[in-house]
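tokens incoming
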């Protein structure tokens, strides 16, 4: 696949087929992704992929805790405290698109909670990938981990797979740590649902917008 096509074709997939992903393919995706650039080649990331029993146990416990309202303290601030208007508008639009696709109205709090819960089921994906960042690096280093994460998404598209990045897992750092065994020197950056898209599911039917070129880029000569 052309790289440009992989970039254009990637989108967040929130329902997956009950179809196993070959372990070697997962390894291949994670292996090529390490070519991501990082400042001074620091590679401040670690990756933990769960599938099979390891995946099922983690999902089961996360859902049980979610149902009991036992979310944990996040290790980093996921959303800004002060949200500028442009941020709020885009956040609203992405929520509107997601909930609209599955017919969940503004006032339907119960259904919104059920949709949020699907994060902890990995949206039915057979593989969960958890990416950590070393505690010693600041925002700059977190950006470098972002390069790795995007590589995972694009390599997955190239392999015929789909992904959804999930900061939702920042709500269960201790649980994920217990299951995958990341060290005290790491912070859980995000989870990634990985699998084959259920293209018939309405939740996968919408595409998010992007701003016009002129509003975010300028070419100066
Ligand atoms: C770091 C990161 C974390 C995200 N976390 C979640 C999440 O927890 N749950 C979710 O449904 N989508 C999550 N998303 C998906 C975004 O909502 C999505 O990327 C955005 O709306 C753009 O849509 P697209 O990915 O389909 O192009 C996350 C995206 C990023 C980059």
């Amino acid at each position: 696949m052309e790289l440009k096509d992989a970039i254009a074709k990637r989108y967040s997939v929130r329902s997956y087929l009950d179809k196993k992903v070959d372990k070697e393919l997962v390894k291949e995706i994670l292996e090529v992704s390490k070519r991501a650039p990082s400042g001074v080649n620091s590679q401040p990331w670690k990756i933990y992929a769960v599938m099979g029993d390891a995946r099922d146990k983690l999902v089961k416990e996360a859902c049980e805790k979610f149902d009991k309202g036992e979310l944990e303290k996040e290790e980093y601030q996921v959303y800004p405290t002060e949200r500028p208007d442009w941020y709020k508008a885009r956040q609203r639009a992405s929520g509107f698109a997601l909930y609209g696709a599955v017919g969940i109205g503004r006032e339907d709090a119960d259904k919104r909670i059920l949709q949020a819960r699907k994060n902890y089921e990995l949206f039915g994906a057979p593989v969960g990938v958890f990416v950590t960042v070393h505690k010693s690096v600041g925002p700059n280093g977190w950006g470098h981990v972002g390069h790795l994460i995007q590589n995972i998404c694009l390599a997955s598209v190239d392999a015929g797979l789909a992904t959804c990045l999930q900061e939702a897992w920042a709500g269960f750092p201790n649980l994920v740590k217990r299951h995958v065994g990341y060290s005290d020197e790491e912070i859980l950056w995000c989870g990634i649902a990985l699998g084959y898209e259920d293209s018939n599911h309405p939740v996968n039917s919408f595409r998010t917008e992007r701003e016009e070129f002129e509003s975010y880029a300028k070419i100066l000569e």
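note: The pocket of flavin mononucleotide is lined by residues 11-12, 14, 94, 119, 164-168, 190, 208 (CB under 6 Å).
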